[in-house]
Amino acid sequence: MTDVAGVRVGHATRIGDGWLTGTTVVLAPEGGAVAAVDVRGGGPGTKETDALDPRNVVQKVDAVVLTGGSAYGLDAASGVMAWLEERGRGVRVGVDPAHVVPVVPAACVFDLGRGGDFRARPSAATGRAAVEAAAASEPGARVAEGCVGAGTGAAVGPLKGGVGTASAVLGSGITVGALVVANAAGSALDPETGVLYGELFQGRVDYPAAHLHEAARGRLAESAAKNALPPLNTTLALVATDAELSKAQAQKLAGTAHDGIARAVRPVHLLNDGDTVFALATGRSPLDAGNPLALNEILAAGADVVTRAIVRAVRAAESVDGPGGAWPSYRELYDGS
């Protein structure tokens, strides 16, 4: 994600004493970025997504919040808004430069109770901690993956989920990156082979040994039986590019990026998912004005990096076995670590 120049990412993570949740903030460069969203899950939890409609007045945003805590966790956006307001970043609403209203789109995943305490969820303070971490990071800093930020309490079917990120540099020189919170009611795992669906799409597959796969299936069945919580989930993604896009073009990018989720998780976009994809465009690299289809390579890359990011999220996750439930990691089951 941070390969897109000017974009920074920060996490705030709470683990222990009933907590297993957190918040991730993607901070746009100074001056903001064109933003859009596409929601396809049947149970989304979002904030300020209507502002991103191409028909509406807001042109740019300064940050996007991805958070745990279900709808309660959307309070994290308030902490990000306060931080931005203190720096005069937002939509100007008066002659005084300090009179701004930061537009901070946000979306949440369901992780309530996974640490053991149903009331342990992100707040405005969590959001502020995440945006401060983003602002303090060095340009291009490596993004922490796995059980951090909004992915702390994530689960993908019976497996532990988390945060993943990936990027690509296109032939045109344009960069496309993605950050995903993999937390799905569906599965990332082919039940017949133990291979991750996203790796089948990528064409680089090492099939697990039969004895490993059988042992993993038994362990997953045991863990699923232990977990009493309903499979209320959501996969969130944010695709960023340094291309110069209109809001309508950014919305198209958010929409096609959902294909990346569908390649890596089956099934998707269910009534108990809230699958949501945001798009950010920083505008540093103009599209080829002579090619009316120049956007296509960005659309294709957006879906590809989302698939790769989901694979990275699942592979980076660590097992959890606590008062809120048990979710083995893919790495422990199939890589022996």
Descriptive notes:
Belongs to the peptidase S58 family. InterPro entries: ArgJ-like_dom_sf, Peptidase_S58_DmpA. This is P1 family peptidase. It comes from Streptomyces coacervatus. The chain has a 6-stranded mixed sheet. Strands 1-2-6-9-4 form a 5-stranded mixed sheet, with helices on one face. Helix 5 (247-264) packs across helix 6. The chain has 7 helices and 17 strands. The protein has helices at residues 76-86, 124-136, 197-202, 210-226, 247-264, 295-316, 330-335; strands spanning 8-16, 19-27, 33-39, 46-47, 60-61, 63-67, 91-92, 100-101, 106-108, 155-156, 159-160, 162-169, 175-182, 236-243, 276-285, 320-322, 325-327. With 337 residues, it is an alpha+beta fold. The radius of gyration is 19 Å and the shape is globular. Helix content is 28%, strand content 25%.
Summarize the entry for a quick read:
This protein is an alpha+beta fold. Helices cover 28% and strands 25% of the residues. The longest helix is centred in the C-terminal third of the chain and has 22 residues, at 295-316.
